[in-house]
Amino acid sequence: MSSAVKISPSILSADFSKLGIEIFELEKAGADLIHIDVMDGHFVPNITIGPDVIKDLKKHTSLPFDVHLMISPVHKYIKNFAEAGADIITIHPESTDNLIETINEIKKFGKKAGVSLNPKTTIEKVLPVLSLIDLVLIMSVNPGFGGQKFIKETLEKVKLLRKEIDQKKLAVEIEIDGGINFDNAKIAKKAGVDILVSGTTIFKNNEGNIKKNIEILRNH
Ligand code: DX5
Ligand code: ZN
């Protein structure tokens, strides 16, 4: 297990009219990555942003872009997101006909590949490709919206994956996404996550003091 947890703020809770400034502020506040939720109104019932926005945001930070694709079919868009500046590209197995081919497509562009598991999806979906990828994203809410309640049963998958990754000495990181707050962040870290995603907690707590909120998530 890595020593310090990384914090990947989700800009879904940011002010979309000033995303460049928001991202710059997140870097100053100590974020490790920028989590970008891409939604198509088809794979999930919400629509957000696409590759052109990501490309322009790239100018506002040197932090890696952790791009969470909730779009289907995803395969044909990997190139666009890779060229726009995504550093990690995470996909849901349900959004492609051939998971291995899509992972290879991400790798072809020299990007880190992530696979995301919805709350009801078991780890068996990711085990066969674990040695091919860089990250497993455990969804602790059903994807689509920020501000939902954390589903604590999903931590069981974190624990199982932690064991599997450590036993096999793989370099795969475990990220958790959805409903993370100051309390469950502690148990998620204990369960073995490497990266915490957080939108609402980082942007809305303590009158929006993002620096303080990142610090609490990381250290408490
Ligand atoms: C949900 C997204 C999450 C979400 C997290 O579909 O993948 O990244 O924005 O936001 P909070 O922390 O508010 O649950
Ligand atoms: Zn996300």
Question: What would your notes on this structure say?
Answer:
- This protein is of the alpha/beta class.
- Helices cover 33% and strands 18% of the residues.
- The protein is built from eight helices and eight strands.
- The longest helix has 13 residues, at 155-167.
- 43% of the residues are buried.
Give the arrangement of secondary structure elements.
Elements: E1 6-9, H1 19-28, E2 34-39, H2 51-57, E3 65-70, H3 78-84, E4 88-91, H4 99-108, E5 112-117, E6 135-139, H5 155-167, E7 173-177, H6 182-191, E8 195-198, H7 200-204, H8 210-219
Parallel strand pairs: 1-8, 2-3, 3-4, 4-5, 5-6, 6-7, 7-8
Helix pairs in contact: 2-3
The protein binds D-xylitol-5-phosphate (DX5) and zinc ion.
Residues 10, 12-13, 35, 37, 68, 141, 143-144, 146-148, 177-180, 197-201 line the site of D-xylitol-5-phosphate (DX5).
Would you give the CATH topology?
TIM Barrel
How do the strands line up in the largest sheet?
A: 1-8-7-6-5-4-3-2
State the shape: globular
The assigned structural class equals: alpha/beta
Ligand types: D-xylitol-5-phosphate, zinc ion
Number of helices: 8
Query: For the residues shown, what is the average pLDDT?
Result: 97
Count of beta strands:
8
Distance between the termini: 18 Å
Task: Give the C-level CATH assignment.
Answer: Alpha Beta
